[in-house]
């Protein structure tokens, strides 16, 4: 009986070890410190956050990298891909399992087959067994190796997609941040214009009071004020929408109507190099590297599919015990408990599979061809993105320089028209037109500066360098 208990306990212990196998896997390849953090250190989207200070662009980016839901989704997908790789790798290793059986027969059955003619034995209706089973794949036609390689490449592709998602999030936060600064400048210009036109209205009212003004001028000014007020309402509504968008990108809720962000629309004009090293850009573009790994994984998957045409050879060994219970018959010299064991090679060769293997191979070949075509398509798309972003930065630079000069000229023209009107040599229409021209110049400058800074970030995103300086 003690031997029986020993076998059962050993089987239970080993089955428990099999459950711990997942936690004993070796670390994943590659440096993942930039892309993931321990689960208990990841900041989750919690209750609404109210800031006690203004938020800079760098701080907004840092928050987004910690809390953005899209990044969190990609992190989990990366973890899933790495788990798939560990599973595929584990299939190449020896498998040790415990097996148990309990059988009741209508008639007494021999406990174990006779080892020699006339050998004594034990017989019984109720029989039990427990075994340790070892299986080791020796030859699979490259199926396991190629599947493990494909899973590793898919895991690396998932890590690259996570990196690209982080960079795209940085750009989205940056462009939204600059759009907020742009809207503030636009609203500031509108309010400045509203204040200037309001002063003009007061002057006309004073002139009318002493019977030197014309009422039609007052009506024109009031119409102009109404138009500016409507523009302010529309631009403030757009600013609120941008603040909500930024809060979503930061992965948070806020009770504040406007996030207290701070920053300037700078203009450094560093110049844009015309020389482009496309291989360096392809190496820095993680979406390109992800697709490249996927294409290589497709090659491995195709090789694994072809390997199913080859035989599979496994080494299999078992060791355990058999015993009978209840009403048993034990012949002289026999025992109701027996040790059994075996070791051998098992081969399986597909002879006819109804076209399943051929169809799987054809599908893998088509997947590989599709990924190669997508890789070529992405190469062309990257070239287009880089060239368009570079041209946009050059155009934005010229716009900023032009609008800066236009503001000075518009301000001077407004002074002239106001002086002429005060001297009775001009009309209020000329003053309002000059005021409108100055407002448009100020608005154009704000939009040009925002476009310049945004397109610089877009150029870095297209080059794959947005998270660090070149």
From TrEMBL:
Residues 281-308 form a coiled coil. Keywords: Cell outer membrane, Coiled coil, Membrane, Transmembrane, Transmembrane beta strand, Transport. InterPro entries: OMP_efflux, TolC-like. Transmembrane segments: none annotated. Pfam families: OEP. Belongs to the outer membrane factor (OMF) (TC 1.B.17) family. PANTHER family: OUTER MEMBRANE PROTEIN TOLC, SLR1270 PROTEIN. This is Outer membrane protein TolC. It comes from Desulfosalsimonas propionicica.
């Amino acid at each position: 009986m003690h031997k029986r208990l020993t076998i059962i306990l050993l089987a239970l212990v080993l089955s428990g070890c099999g459950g711990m196998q997942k936690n004993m896997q070796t670390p994943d390849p590659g440096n993942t410190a930039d892309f993931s953090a321990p689960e208990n250190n990841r900041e989750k989207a919690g209750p609404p956050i109210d800031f006690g200070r203004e938020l800079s662009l760098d701080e907004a980016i840092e928050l987004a990298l910690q809390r953005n839901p899209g990044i969190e989704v990609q992190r989990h997908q990366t973890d899933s891909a790495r788990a798939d790789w560990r599973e595929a790798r584990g299939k190449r290793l020896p498998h040790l399992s415990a097996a148990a059986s309990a059988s009741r027969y209508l008639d007494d059955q021999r406990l174990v087959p006779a080892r020699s003619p006339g050998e004594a034995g034990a017989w019984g209706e109720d029989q039990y067994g427990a075994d340790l089973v070892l299986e080791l794949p020796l030859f699979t036609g490259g199926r396991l190796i190629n599947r493990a390689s494909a899973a590793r490449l898919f895991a690396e592709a998932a890590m690259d997609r996570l990196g690209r998602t982080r960079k795209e999030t940085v750009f989205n936060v940056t462009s939204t941040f600059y759009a907020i600064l742009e809207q503030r400048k636009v609203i500031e210009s509108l309010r400045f214009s509203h204040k200037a036109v309001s002063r003009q209205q007061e002057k006309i009212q004073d002139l009318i009071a002493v019977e030197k003004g014309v009422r039609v001028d007052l009506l024109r000014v009031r119409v102009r004020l109404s138009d500016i007020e409507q523009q302010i309402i529309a631009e403030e509504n757009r600013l609120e929408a941008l603040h909500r968008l930024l809060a979503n990108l930061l992965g948070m809720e806020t009770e504040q109507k406007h996030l207290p962000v701070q920053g300037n629309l700078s203009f450094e004009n560093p110049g844009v190099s015309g020389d482009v090293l496309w291989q360096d850009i392809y190496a820095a573009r993680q979406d390109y590297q992800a697709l490249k790994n996927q294409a290589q994984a497709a090659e491995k998957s195709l090789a694994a599919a072809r390997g199913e045409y080859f035989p599979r050879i496994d080494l299999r060994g078992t060791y355990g015990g058999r015993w009978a219970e209840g009403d048993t018959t034990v012949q002289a010299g026999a025992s109701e408990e027996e040790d059994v064991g075996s070791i051998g090679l098992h081969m399986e060769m597909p002879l006819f599979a109804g076209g399943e293997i051929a169809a799987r191979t054809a599908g893998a070949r088509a997947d590989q061809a599709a990924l190669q075509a997508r890789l070529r398509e992405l190469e062309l798309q990257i070239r287009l993105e880089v060239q368009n972003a570079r041209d946009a930065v050059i155009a934005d630079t010229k716009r900023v320089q032009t609008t800066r000069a236009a503001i000075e000229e518009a301000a001077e023209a407004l002074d002239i028209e106001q002086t002429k009107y005060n001297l009775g040599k001009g009309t209020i229409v000329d003053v309002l037109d000059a005021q409108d021209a100055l407002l448009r110049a100020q608005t154009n400058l704000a939009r040009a500066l925002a476009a310049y800074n945004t397109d610089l970030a877009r150029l870095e995103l297209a080059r794959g360098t947005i998270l660090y300086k070149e």
